[in-house]
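Help needed: design a sequence for this.
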């Protein structure tokens, strides 16, 4: 609870006003603040204080022992905050996760929504924070409770190199997250694959590639071109030239390059009188970044979107 120096009236006013975080007072992100929802009225003021100090066993007991009226006054679950606080304690990781699991189960038993967010550098859901700190059992529990997984959760696992959590996300929300990864190709956000390349995290790159069907976007190529060859050489040690196109490396070429190759393969090659094997050999002379996005954008309507979305690799091969 915030302390007051001007009496009870001042205290009640402070409870509902926005309070700047230490990061803001020190000149950080001006959009980051503690929301008034973090300072609820009695009896949950003590609950927030216990969360802040990592006293999660007390919080779990309080949730289970609260009346229905008291639960109705609980503003949010505070699970995201609880994860962030417990994660930095000195308790063993296994014990941390057990405490968090008990708290999450207590919230579910009382029908409390687990989808609230905590403010870090950006708003993060409980699922995102669990993924960032690497709590796989808690992550599965939240996914089973139908917590929503999207770009933020994927990025959190990549940011902190949480291989197991990334695998769980992509296995349990495969269809949706594959769509999210595909949409990243055409956005200006930091891409999960781009970040993995910068981090030189080969395991993350492989998981995104194999389970997420992630492919290099034009933006990712532009921002990570210098580090990409070294990563590819480690992923494909028997490949003598990772800079040139091959079926194996098709996914690692930027979007514009892949679309142009697809256009040639589907609309030109079949009527050219040249054998398919010869065309594949011709493609092998192509380097990354030969075609810029402006060219593809200008021709996309003329070719038809279906063509540029296709790939010359059979869909079951895992090398699209």
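Sure. Designed sequence:
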């Amino acid at each position: 609870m915030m302390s007051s120096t001007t009496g009870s009236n001042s205290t009640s006013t402070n409870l509902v006003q926005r309070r700047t975080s230490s990061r803001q007072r020190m000149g950080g992100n001006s959009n980051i603040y503690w929301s008034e929802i973090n300072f609820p009225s009695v009896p949950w003021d003590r609950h927030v204080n216990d969360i802040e100090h990592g006293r999660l066993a007390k919080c779990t007991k309080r949730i289970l022992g609260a009346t229905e009226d008291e639960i109705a006054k609980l503003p949010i679950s505070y699970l995201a905050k609880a994860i962030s606080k417990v994660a930095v304690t000195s308790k063993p990781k296994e014990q941390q996760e057990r405490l968090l699991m008990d708290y999450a189960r207590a919230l579910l038993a009382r029908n409390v929504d687990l989808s609230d967010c905590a403010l870090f550098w950006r708003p993060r859901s409980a699922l995102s924070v669990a993924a960032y700190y690497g709590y796989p059992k808690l992550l599965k529990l939240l996914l089973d409770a139908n917590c929503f997984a999207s770009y933020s959760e994927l990025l959190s696992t990549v940011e902190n190199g949480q291989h197991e959590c990334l695998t769980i996300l992509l296995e349990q929300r495969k269809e949706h997250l594959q769509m999210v990864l595909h949409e990243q190709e055409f956005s200006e956000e930091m891409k999960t694959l781009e970040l993995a390349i910068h981090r030189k995290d080969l395991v993350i790159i492989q998981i995104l590639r194999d389970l997420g069907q992630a492919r290099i976007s034009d933006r990712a190529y532009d921002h990570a071109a210098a580090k990409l060859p070294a990563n590819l050489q480690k992923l494909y040690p028997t490949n003598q030239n990772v800079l040139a196109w091959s079926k194996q490396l098709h996914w690692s070429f930027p979007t514009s390059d892949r679309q142009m190759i697809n256009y040639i393969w589907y609309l030109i090659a079949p009527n050219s009188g040249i054998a398919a094997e010869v065309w594949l050999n011709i493609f092998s002379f192509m380097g990354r970044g030969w075609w810029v996005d402006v060219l593809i954008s200008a021709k996309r309507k003329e070719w038809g979107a279906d063509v540029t979305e296709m790939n010359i690799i059979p869909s079951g091969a895992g090398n699209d």
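The CA atoms of residues 245 and 283 lie 6 Å apart.
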